[in-house]
Fold these 2 entries.
Entry 1:
Amino acid sequence: MQDFDVKELDRLLQQAFDAATALYQQRGFQRRVGFGKRPALVSVDLANAWTRPGNPFTCDQEKMDNEIIPAMQKLLAAFRANGLPVIHVTTAYEITDRKAPFTDMGLWHDKIPVDVVDLKDKDLCAIDSRIAPVEGEYTLLKKRASAFHGTELAGILRAANVDTILVTGVTACACVRQTICDGIADGFRTIAVKEAIGDRVPGAVAWNLFDIDAKFGDVVGVDDCVTYLNSLKA
Amino acid sequence: MQDFDVKELDRLLQQAFDAATALYQQRGFQRRVGFGKRPALVSVDLANAWTRPGNPFTCDQEKMDNEIIPAMQKLLAAFRANGLPVIHVTTAYEITDRKAPFTDMGLWHDKIPVDVVDLKDKDLCAIDSRIAPVEGEYTLLKKRASAFHGTELAGILRAANVDTILVTGVTACACVRQTICDGIADGFRTIAVKEAIGDRVPGAVAWNLFDIDAKFGDVVGVDDCVTYLNSLKA
Amino acid sequence: MQDFDVKELDRLLQQAFDAATALYQQRGFQRRVGFGKRPALVSVDLANAWTRPGNPFTCDQEKMDNEIIPAMQKLLAAFRANGLPVIHVTTAYEITDRKAPFTDMGLWHDKIPVDVVDLKDKDLCAIDSRIAPVEGEYTLLKKRASAFHGTELAGILRAANVDTILVTGVTACACVRQTICDGIADGFRTIAVKEAIGDRVPGAVAWNLFDIDAKFGDVVGVDDCVTYLNSLKA
Amino acid sequence: MQDFDVKELDRLLQQAFDAATALYQQRGFQRRVGFGKRPALVSVDLANAWTRPGNPFTCDQEKMDNEIIPAMQKLLAAFRANGLPVIHVTTAYEITDRKAPFTDMGLWHDKIPVDVVDLKDKDLCAIDSRIAPVEGEYTLLKKRASAFHGTELAGILRAANVDTILVTGVTACACVRQTICDGIADGFRTIAVKEAIGDRVPGAVAWNLFDIDAKFGDVVGVDDCVTYLNSLKA
């Protein structure tokens, strides 16, 4: 696919980000929302349809295997060691006939191939076994991009006194970004874990993380996140 | 600000979009949601704090004066001629003291300078006089990026049998994008009106419209929108 | 349980409703929202935990077997004959340990015994076999009282051009009432189907339907609903 | 209006509540959600259209003047002395022409006379001067029954680390009840302040507080609330 010069794109994007940063800094954007006192992990769509090859939703495999999954494993270890809430999010549908008079896909199948993630194919929708949920962790089934929109997530987090969410997963330009934007709108300090967020097309991770960091959540490296999590130990 | 080569950025971005489009087309993304039967106009943050010079939120003035406002005037004429719902959206806050123990800014002032749009400064929050609301049009006051999140908008539109929204305004990377993503999630056919959407930093309009068109709404030119609106005449 | 005079309660309640109706009529309440053009059936919690004996959630069995289920069967026949959307709603939880640091019960187990409807007990949460879903009907899993709150329902209905919901099920004082109140708030014409709504304590059906009819939705008999549904035939 | 025997109604209602309580207790309902660590006051529709005579929305005046307003004054004193968040809620509309093709009343004017609370009549929608907001308190404008539905409230409260809401105001059978039911669904410990909740028809306060206490929030006397608030002092 990438028969153009990705490195050259990255170089030009960085110049654009630098110019934007100059304006944003002068105007008072790009502030730090920071970590709060009680974080939860919200891991978006790291299910087989997205993490494994051969599906329309398959993401950049090199990044998935070499960066995202390892970063998730680090995060999960820290969340589990500290007894903090973990939410695994997946997406699937009951009625995937695009001609049905009525479907839980709503209108989204009119934009993207959500008709392939049928709830009846349990394997496609299951969280990747390399980061599988353990007892006490929650698997949230969503229907739209955001893990918050039309789901029980905000209420569950508030009930558990969570004030901060660390967001990971795919894709940067859709479900991850929407989850982050809704997260801060719903009153949670929102952190995008840099190494643990992917996509499937060139540039999308870069420009979406740039927009997010400017306005909706802090982009933070996984090691800094782990240090923070471990600092919460009693 | 733009002391780098904007045209070169555009050229590289276009190459990235072409590569992504090849993948998206092969995978079944970038479908057309299309126009429905009863549209509303949702015009986001075309209030003085965003449309006029001298404010942290001020957007690209050349584009505002020469493209966005004229496109909005065309759209308003068509919506009004056909008696269709028009919603003007603005953003402002009651409690703008950043040290207050509690504020309607929520946590957003921890990322961006929302503390400057104080509800008491009626002029800043007022819709730009060049596109001012007329009798029967609605002015929605929102607190977050999306015109839907935490507002009455979805309920009002459904009650009026609206099935399609044409979205305009600023900024592409925040309030416009969030409104579009929530719009389709809430069950509305969502159209981004190409000439009527702006931002304040280089590249942001291009990459956000690309992401939107791939997954959340159709990017359509203003003249095609006007043709559609006029086709609804009895 | 009912070792007091239920008939005397009903007689006094009717007098209270008559007095309230005099005031409401004079003030302009108790208006008719009426049927729209495209209805959906939203049937709330008619799953075994509520419809069958022996569970904390079990409802009035005589009413269930002799009125609610037969009324539902009439409604389902009419919805199916006319190809209209049917949503069956049920409630269950993944994490039902009341001492868990974090659970999808949120705080609700601090008021009612939701910890008994564990998702792992598929039979408890399954829709009653007498009114079981057929191909093309949707089963919605909710976590709170309302079928709308924190669910995909409003978006799905809007995407399908639904403008009216007929609401049935249990209980009148909780999940049915909340679904109706949210339904009209979300912009749907809301009809409470009189014979198809139950509860488990004396008086609760009467006073909740009275409040609903005064302010949130029309209470309509099942036969009038069926007549309406059949009138929609092409 | 009350030309029937209110005392006799109360006596019979109490018998019904006793019978229901026997069942609820046996089944595990009527649990106590309790107070949390950081409360906010959510005072619903204590604006002139509801608190003063002569409007369709006017409530029971004797109870308003002799119980609700004095209880609110006690609560406000305690919230203010302890620097805790106070939200005053009111309801009003921009477009009150019932024949308009589109209105922020949604469909609610098809049930109740919301067309009388026009935003242009500032006095009707203003909070009662006996309990007027002071600097730092928030006035929330809502469009539906619930103070949460389609508003910024949940996000604002979460951002301020609020975990508990004390709810007051009118009416028991509509806006107060909906606010309480949404409150616990959104993850807040929800307390109905007994003396500070009213209505306009006989019985409605009694049966709605009964339902609320059984399933959605604790009904607690104002003096116990004040004791709790004062216990939070550093």
Entry 2:
Amino acid sequence: MVDLKCTADFCIIPIGTPTASLSQYIAEVQVMIRSSGLTYSMHSAGTTVEGPWDEVTELIGKAHQVLHDLGIPRAQSDIRIGTRIDKKQSFPEKVAVVEKILEEKKKQQASETKSVV
Amino acid sequence: MVDLKCTADFCIIPIGTPTASLSQYIAEVQVMIRSSGLTYSMHSAGTTVEGPWDEVTELIGKAHQVLHDLGIPRAQSDIRIGTRIDKKQSFPEKVAVVEKILEEKKKQQASETKSVV
Amino acid sequence: MVDLKCTADFCIIPIGTPTASLSQYIAEVQVMIRSSGLTYSMHSAGTTVEGPWDEVTELIGKAHQVLHDLGIPRAQSDIRIGTRIDKKQSFPEKVAVVEKILEEKKKQQASETKSVV
Amino acid sequence: MVDLKCTADFCIIPIGTPTASLSQYIAEVQVMIRSSGLTYSMHSAGTTVEGPWDEVTELIGKAHQVLHDLGIPRAQSDIRIGTRIDKKQSFPEKVAVVEKILEEKKKQQASETKSVV
């Protein structure tokens, strides 16, 4: 058992599919994720999930299982997984923090331009 | 030169920073990306960009340059980069396609439940 | 529990380190991996491990724990993890298979050159 | 143009292949890499290449082109790419550095055990 919270962003690729269109497979994986109870967000390049390390990595394993159950012989995921012990931060806050900094930068630049004028 | 369009999702990590908070650095990278003219979207686990292969990979290289210019000695990116020649698809459409399938699945299940009743 | 064998290749990055040299940290992670009993191989861009899904992902979580125990506030791993149900293949065999194909290609080309002459 | 040296480790996956066995495709990519003149090393989970940013990312783009030329409609790569400006280090040295630390640790432990006895 790993006693850590984590945020994982994963992109799963079914291998050996008759077609290059993967959305049907991804939809099946999403159905499973939705039923997991973990906080998650799907974007165009993957799905971000957060929770206890064991639950999150188990969820990704179940995503592989979903594909194999559909007859896909092989699957590969790319996972970016992060842990931190200095503070709690939920992944939806991260973008807000960066956007706030960007907003402040803009204001600062605007005010600097004014004082130059 | 590589004559391919691509979609890349990258997560850049500055290494050897005095703090574990990276948002200030990420904001500087975002300023550069915004000025690039490429279609992009920031999410909590990275930034998705699309365009010609050479421009997209150059953009990511410039993100490394931005960090080094700030005095960061080392940086590492994880990049998921995809190309396809069977059809054109812009990354914002991908999520919509999956969500449409999920919507149809729901309707189908609802109608199946009805007919059972 | 996930009932699948997997091969995972991971690259762990400590974040918020006083220095850009990570080898001391990586060495501590390697000590833990060596004691795990799983089949593994370290290369310059990561470590490949194979075994049951739960054990492999737990090992990577323990790698994060090792870093946190050393006082590192934050860590991120990039993981490539694959499963397949069509055949058993241990990761050290993969390179051999590709190299055999390359060898055969060379022979074929040599013999084609001969017959042209 | 990006004026940085880099080390990239990439794993390319052909999508929409009739089979789950990818070694034939990987072998074709390896033939191209071998002819590139860049320093590289194939391992079971990818290929590590080093050189100028533009040349390395172009090489990976060419790997996608190789697959498309073979009729593969879609391909995705996972790339770990690193740059550093504090020192020059060639990727084959990295493993040696970690192994040297591990060796020293062993010696130290052995000598500590001795002095306890």
